[in-house]
């Protein structure tokens, strides 16, 4: 998977920060945070369901290491930066000074400007690694939950990335937003911040419902373009864009693919004739170059989105499981309503 890069220009506003903290005592938006764990959580084991199996943690982690921007910001959104020993992500993430979680970025060490490694984990003396399949965990790198277990280091797997057993590597076991809520609830339970997690989830659901209520009568067909010229990389049913598109008022043209991030053929894009294209902006090839390619690629010339130049850009951190998803839904929803006129 190519999602080892981060976006070039996060699009977040103070309104997002206010929306997600409604009813919470703190979230890493600069307010005073509540204690990261309750007395019960400090002394007792905690069991959660992760990737379809029960996982028990003997203690509340105190030195968490994360991989990638969305996973890292889930911890920050819950106000758990004090429980972190570091994070890994590429440095093409753009300016983070205006994000609601700036305090977390200022406070938590940046361990690697690439993917996480065993060396990073050991050097940080991590007591929990929070990553995902193709978001840090992979057999090729040797960094897997089983490998870390052999080192005595517990793990938590991003639910969006859970393998589903349909093939050796296909991912996704539940709708993407349910995956987001599951991770927030599990982390809330593990770290003793259940009320904070519940407030975030409630705020997210309220904002998303408000966008859904404005959806156009005609739900436009939408294609998510991540990268690739010979073969496009896109989102199936179980990656975050699938539900971001749906909740925004569109239809993901690749929703029948029971996987998360995956490659398809251009012929399938042409056949499904998307009426709008969403570009995932990250990496060495920026959004403008991707847009130029789509508009000039001959096989796409008769595709509705290309003919009418209906192309919208969202950042990488908007389109992976992260606390930015509700804002992405609202912004894409506004665009689709305008495009449908």
Describe the structure.
The protein is α/β, with parallel strands linked by helices. It has two domains: 14-209, Rossmann fold; 215-339, Rossmann fold (3-Layer(aba) Sandwich), CATH 3.40.50. Helix content is 36%, strand content 17%. It is globular, with a radius of gyration of 19 Å.
* Class by SSE composition: alpha/beta
Supply the CATH superfamily name of the largest domain: Nitrogenase molybdenum iron protein domain
Q: Which word captures the global form?
A: globular
Poorly predicted tracts of residues: 1-42
What string gives the helices and strands in order? HHEEEHEHEHEEHEHHEEHEEHEHHEHH
Largest sheet: 6 strands, parallel
Estimate the strand proportion.
Answer: 15-25%
Feature tags:
about 350 residues, alpha/beta, Rossmann fold, 2 domains, 4-stranded parallel β-sheet, 14 strands, about 35% helix, disordered N terminus, ABC_Transporter_SBP, ABC transporter substrate-binding protein
């Amino acid at each position: 998977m190519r999602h080892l890069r981060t976006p070039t220009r996060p699009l977040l506003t103070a309104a997002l920060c206010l929306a997600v903290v409604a009813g919470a005592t703190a979230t890493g938006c600069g307010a005073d945070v509540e204690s990261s764990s309750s007395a019960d959580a400090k002394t007792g084991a905690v069991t959660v369901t992760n990737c379809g199996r029960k996982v028990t943690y003997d203690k509340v982690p105190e030195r968490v290491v994360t991989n990638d921007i969305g996973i890292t910001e889930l911890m920050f959104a819950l106000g758990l930066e004090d429980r972190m020993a570091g994070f890994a992500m590429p440095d093409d993430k753009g300016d983070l000074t205006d994000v609601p979680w700036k305090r977390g970025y200022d406070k938590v060490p940046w361990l690697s400007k690439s993917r996480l490694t065993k060396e990073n984990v050991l050097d940080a003396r991590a007591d929990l690694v929070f990553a995902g399949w193709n978001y840090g965990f992979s057999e090729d790198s040797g960094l897997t939950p089983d490998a870390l277990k052999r080192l005595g280091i517990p793990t938590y797997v991003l639910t969006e990335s859970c393998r589903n057993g349909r093939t050796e590597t296909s991912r996704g076991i539940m709708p993407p937003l349910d995956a987001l809520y599951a991770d927030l609830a599990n982390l809330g339970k593990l770290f003793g911040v259940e009320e904070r997690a519940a407030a975030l989830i409630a705020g997210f659901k309220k904002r998303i419902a408000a966008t859904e209520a404005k959806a156009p009568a005609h739900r436009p067909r939408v294609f998510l373009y991540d990268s690739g010229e010979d073969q496009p990389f896109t989102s199936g049913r179980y990656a975050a864009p699938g539900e971001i598109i749906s909740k925004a008022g569109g239809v993901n043209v690749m929703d029948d693919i029971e996987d998360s991030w995956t490659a398809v053929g251009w012929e399938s894009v042409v056949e499904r004739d998307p009426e709008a294209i969403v570009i995932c902006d990250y990496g060495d090839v920026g959004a403008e170059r991707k847009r130029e390619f789509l508009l000039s690629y001959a096989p796409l010339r008769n595709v509705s989105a290309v003919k009418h130049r209906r192309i919208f850009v969202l950042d990488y951190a908007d389109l992976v499981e992260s606390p930015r998803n509700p804002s992405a839904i609202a912004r894409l929803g506004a665009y689709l309503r305008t495009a449908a006129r």
